[in-house]
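Class prep. Protein, please:
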Amino acid sequence: MDARSGATKHHAILIGIDAYPDKPLNGSASDVQHMQAYLESTNRAVQIQTFTATKTTGSGHALAEEPKDWPTYDNIATAFEKVQAEANPGDFVYIHYSGHGTREPPTQEFSNQASGDLVLVLLGGENGDDTEYLYAVVLGYFLKDMVDKGLIVTLVLDCCFSGSVYRETDVRFIEYQHDVAAKRPKNPALRWDAIATHTTRSASMLPSWLVNPDGYAIYAACGPHEVAKELKDGRGNKFGALSYFLRTTLQEYGGVASKHQHLYSLICAKFRAASTRQSPILYGNKHHGFFDHHVANLASNPVSVFVQEGVPRIPLGQAHMVCLGDTFSLRRSTSPDSAANLTDFVATVQQVGPLTSTISYKTEAVQMENNLVAKPLAQSILQRLPVKLDNTIGHHEKWMLDLKERSLGVHTESSDSPCYLHILLNPKKEYEIRDADGNKVANLNLMREDEVDITYVCDVLEHLTRYNMVKRLANPTPTYLGQEYFTVRMFNRNASYEPGATINLPDKAIVELRVENKSSEPLYVYAFNLGSHWQVENILKGSHEVIPWQDTQRMFSGKLSRKLRISVPDDMKEVGCCEDVVKVILTTHPTTFDVLELPKLHKPAKPGASPSRVSRNVPEDFVVFDFFLRTALI
């Protein structure tokens, strides 16, 4: 079936549990009831299976719902199997879990050694007054079956996996209990390595329970060191923060056809505005639509403006290569397609910090400052890598205008100033791009003068400039993150490599990135592959990874390990080798580096999204490390 055909169907599994025998909640069932009502209002025929647990006031069963609607393991497993059997390739599946989460100690090689493996706490027993576990490895198999069939899956986990002992009744965490685990032992045949069958370099750094990232997106309410709490609205009703902010964002910003990347950035802005000490995480394919085919005119992903101590700011800083004097266009964040959204204001960067920057703008925009989003207009850092126009190129005025509109610096052949790229027209009437050393830039499409226009070539020049801008990203003088707070190494078999090393590898080799947090605060990890086709790709396939501090009582090892398979691309096998750079960034606060990502050259660009930030008494800071990989056919 064509995924774009009118026959595409929508399936939903909604799970909300209030009536736990121990530590009951108050907002989980209403979370999924509100989401069910929203999905039914979208004018899409959604096949919904809902499982809720609320306390009964009568005798007999402990739950108000019928047993077939209880959130038990058997009912949930049957629901997954039903969707997998009835759905067709290209169908959309939405799964929402609101309830308690916990973590089990790591038990396998591919377990999460940093903080243990997640577990969802379901109900059990003849009267629904007991608990049982849905393990991450089992959830991973359910997801794998769906993704392997070609289904497009969105999973929302509004629970937490923090290991602290919490006494508040509004925290969605419950301690892992071995007696509960013994009621339904895991099948030893279910193994992480059987789920993680993907072999591409861009997929292998996923957490072990996640599968092929192209087929799903997962929203997690928080990191392992944080808590997912229930909040109250003005009428005293409780709700999960992620569930509430997700639903209101869908209602306000384009509905279920909105792109994950766009939704995630706006959800993070709502968390920040509410001063909620949670940093939601997004894994998987951020370019799919939430629960329908993505609407192209919602593709723009500007960053949200926020106000801190009375000063407007953007969540971009030195780590994102923002410079003093850079300009951004501002517009309302609500109703992205409305005519009222067409008036832009211009903001100028006044002060640049490691992860955030202050901006100033016209007074007319002040009244909207809680609903503003920003998109880059002029980035001065691009001018530090100028382009030289050769005398063989005609229409210099047109070229210079196009390049300057992209914030690129431009020199002519008569200039003695150094340049990063040199564009010329060879005797075959083909455009050639050479680097600063005069070498022809490799892996570019043929660009004949009579087949491509100036705009196309300028797009290529801008792409190459942005790639090398990211390649040069560094922070040699961090103010807080000293070497005593962490270690970063790459391993191949028994060999260990420090940052800056060149690692020679055979084709299809596996390298392992290991990061250790030696500080008393969480560290946030980002990793990118700068590849031979001029792509900058997020190889963690998530908004970020967090490494909590070392705490044995909470199962925090302080260590993160991710494996990466490296292979020579098919179109480079005649060359026999390829070179990549793995760039690792550590930060003291969560952010996102989507603004740095680039597709393979000549593929459509995927715009960046808004970073999020949670205020903590730790200064903003970041450090950057590079590993140079040279992979050769044997």
